[in-house]
Design a protein that fits this description.
alpha+beta, globular, 292 residues, 43% helix
Length: 292
């Protein structure tokens, strides 16, 4: 069985992030098809391979049915892969997780509108209006209730990382991007998202998979991204490298980065550039250079 997932720009498409996390964070392989937002690429892709879907993410299973909307994708994967742990196994925690996921899927419209997801920048302030502040108050209440009602002890809402956390991941990034005013417990939850291995991979790809989208540009003062600080690496010219094959594809080296005075090669510019963006996000690269 092969899963095919249509997504938009990784740096900006919050629903695409949810769709992809439902696979990567739970160890389920998926083949992605990416189309740029605000162009005719996405409508053409969906019409050609994911009809009748109109938005990303959209899932096609083998050559069979198309599953539309991230919540439907979540439920389908949870049914097909019960061992993956998409929902908590405990009935109480599962009921809580489903409740908060449904509210996230349908609510928080002021926050979404004023603070669209943008993983390429972080601002010092965005002057949140009353509607956004109200959403943030509700958000913190829901998060605190979920942890209390489910008996969660770790960083996630209902015990282990679940669909509930997947659905709140883009909201956590909005708090990080726009420096939104939330309390210490909510900030800790945001920090857990920014450090999650799958999220770090997604953001690294989102930093380099196309030009900035003008729709998301804001004139607020900026600050460094508040997540884990990446190791320093840079793209360099040439093909001379310590390795002969790309650590991801096994194909011959055509593009190279430099880190700690050593040159490492990749099969294409995207493989190299996503690694430059956050080397530690990529276990295969870290294993190759002997830092795992």
């Amino acid at each position: 069985m092969t899963y095919h997932l249509a997504i938009g720009d990784r740096g900006y498409s919050s629903w695409s992030l949810r769709g992809w996390l439902l696979f990567d964070a739970f160890g389920i392989p998926v083949q992605t098809k990416t189309a740029r937002l605000y162009t005719d690429e996405l409508p053409k892709l969906l019409a050609a391979e994911f009809a009748p879907a109109k938005t990303a993410p959209a899932l096609r299973i083998d050559n069979g049915p198309v599953v539309m909307e991230s919540l439907a994708i979540a439920e389908e994967l949870a049914s097909r892969h019960p061992e993956a742990g998409h929902w908590p196994s405990d009935p109480t925690a599962r009921a809580v997780a489903r409740s908060v996921t449904a509210e996230m899927h349908a609510g928080f419209t002021a926050l979404r509108s004023h603070c669209p997801m943008n993983l390429r920048v972080s601002y010092t302030d965005c002057a949140p209006p009353e509607g956004v502040l109200s959403d943030l108050e509700r958000l913190q209440k829901v998060w605190a209730w979920a942890r209390q009602a489910s008996g969660a002890q770790g960083p996630w809402l209902c015990g282990g990382y679940s669909i509930a956390d997947v659905f709140f991941a883009p909201v956590a990034t909005r708090i990080a991007t726009y420096n939104l005013p939330v309390g210490a417990e909510a900030q800790a939850y945001v920090a857990a998202h920014l450090a999650h291995p799958s999220f770090r991979k997604w953001r690294a790809m989102g930093l380099v998979d196309g030009a900035d989208q003008e729709y998301y540009r804001r004139d607020y003062p900026t600050r460094p991204w508040p997540g884990p600080k990446p190791l320093v690496a840079k793209a360099v010219e040439g093909t001379e490298a310590m390795n002969a094959a790309c650590p991801y594809s096994g194909k011959p080296v055509n593009h190279v980065l430099e880190m700690n005075g050593q040159r490492w090669g990749f099969c294409n510019a995207f493989c190299r550039d996503k690694t430059v963006a956050d080397p530690e996000a990529w276990p295969a690269f870290m294993a190759m250079i002997g830092q795992v």
